[in-house]
Design goal:
The chain is α/β, with parallel strands linked by helices and about 120 residues long. About 45% of the residues lie in helices and about 20% in strands. The protein has a five-stranded parallel β-sheet, with helices on both faces. Strand 1, helix 1 and strand 2 form a beta-alpha-beta unit.
């Protein structure tokens, strides 16, 4: 959990990961991506990200299970999901922001900027 760490984008849709990576890098952020919760745990341990963008519905280890495994303290979390459980999970894990798919990329980039600034 370093303020200088990269942004970790976790989603099982590789196109969505690539799009967010491009947009966040264009805004000056370093970005690491993971396509499921298990991959995210490895990326988290290796990179110590400053902000997590997490989808809830993923194979192997979903976003809710991932947040449970990461525990607290952890970096700020932005949920990006189509799950109807978005608000319930956000409340339970005290996430910092939520976006429903489809979302406005500019709003997500602005929220990442605010959260990564500390």
């Amino acid at each position: 959990m370093s303020p200088d760490g990269p942004i970790l984008v976790i989603d099982d849709d590789p196109d969505l990961c690539a799009m967010l990576k491009r947009a966040l890098e264009h805004a000056g952020h370093r970005v690491v991506t993971a396509n499921d919760g298990m991959e995210a745990i490895r990326a988290f341990e290796l990179n110590r990200p400053s902000v997590l963008l997490v989808d809830l519905m993923m194979p192997h280890l979903d976003g809710e299970e991932l947040l449970r495994v990461l525990g607290s303290p952890r970096p700020p979390v932005i949920l990006i999901t189509a799950s109807v459980r978005r608000e319930e999970v956000a409340d339970r894990f005290k996430v910092d922001a939520t976006y429903e798919k489809p979302f406005d990329v500019a709003h997500v980039v602005a929220t990442v900027g605010r959260l990564s600034a500390g």
